Amino acid sequence: MAEIIDTRTEPERAIERACAVLAEGEPVAIPTETVYGLAADATNPDAISRIYEMKGRPRFNPLISHVSDMAMAEAHVTFDSLSRRLAEAFWPGPLTLILPQRTTSTVHALASAGLDTLGIRMPDGFSRRVIARFGRPLAAPSANTSGKISPTSAAHVEADLGPRLKLILDAGSAEIGLESTIIKVEDGALRLLRPGGLDVFEIERLTGLTVSRPQSAGATIEAPGMLASHYAPGAAVRLDAADVRPGEALIRFGNASLPGEEHAAIVLDLSPAGSLREAAANLFDYMKRADASGSATIAFGPIPSEGLGEAILDRLQRAAAPRD
Ligand code: TXA
Ligand code: MG
Question: Where does L-threonine bind (predicted)?
Answer without folding.
Answer: 34, 66, 121, 140, 142, 180
